[in-house]
């Protein structure tokens, strides 16, 4: 099951639609005062207006387990950054050359969701599934920003890999971070045309966060459709860690992985 949609809680639908349409070339599928659906090439973004949001406990510290950011592939990073600066969008990290031969930058959407732009094909340090890497690279340079991944920090990569294997995810590749003394590694789990980008920090203490479905920003990710794998489960117990039901969104049950990433398994 690939990532089918990303659910975001927003304060103002029109403001958020304008942001994603103008700065990330999103195509508006439908929009009302209460919700919107946006096409970001390989996934839909589903926006829901929240009038009285809870105070978010998310912090921009990758040592906090669970959701970290949403990533897009672009072919024109400098032009995108210039437009973001002109729009006075707050940045978390100005463009840098990163491990894997890519250029990246991080910034925030109007409701505090951390977004990343990635330019260039990642040159993975470790390849675990050549077919998945070839399919990744085969997508080529995008004509417009293409949804690429959701990132999360986890306590144990083996547990996370086992958990998402039941949804058809394969361990595709990895990137080392030799300059980071916290034992930082990135592992990419792949299904379909997007990834789960998984952070581990073997030499640093991580903090657990209780999932919030009623705060502004990222709410959950929906898995659906077909991907590179064949699993159809919902991340059961055993080695992969038991799923935990934490509520409902859009009339569907929201589960979490062992590190608190909220997700929905779309109904067939």
TrEMBL record:
SUPFAM superfamilies: Glyoxalase/Bleomycin resistance protein/Dihydroxybiphenyl dioxygenase
One example of a Gene Ontology biological process annotation: L-methylmalonyl-CoA metabolic process
GO molecular function: lyase activity; metal ion binding; methylmalonyl-CoA epimerase activity
Metal-binding keyword on record: yes
Tree of life domain: Bacteria
Ranges of residues in domain VOC: 2-120
Matches recorded under PROSITE patterns: VOC (PS51819)
Keywords: Lyase, Metal-binding
Pfam families named among the record's database cross-references: Glyoxalase (PF00903)
InterPro entries on file: Glyas_Bleomycin-R_OHBP_Dase, Glyas_Fos-R_dOase_dom, MMCE/EMCE_epimerase, VOC_core
Keyword Transmembrane: no
Protein name: Catechol 2,3-dioxygenase-like lactoylglutathione lyase family enzyme
Organism in which the protein naturally occurs: Curtobacterium pusillum
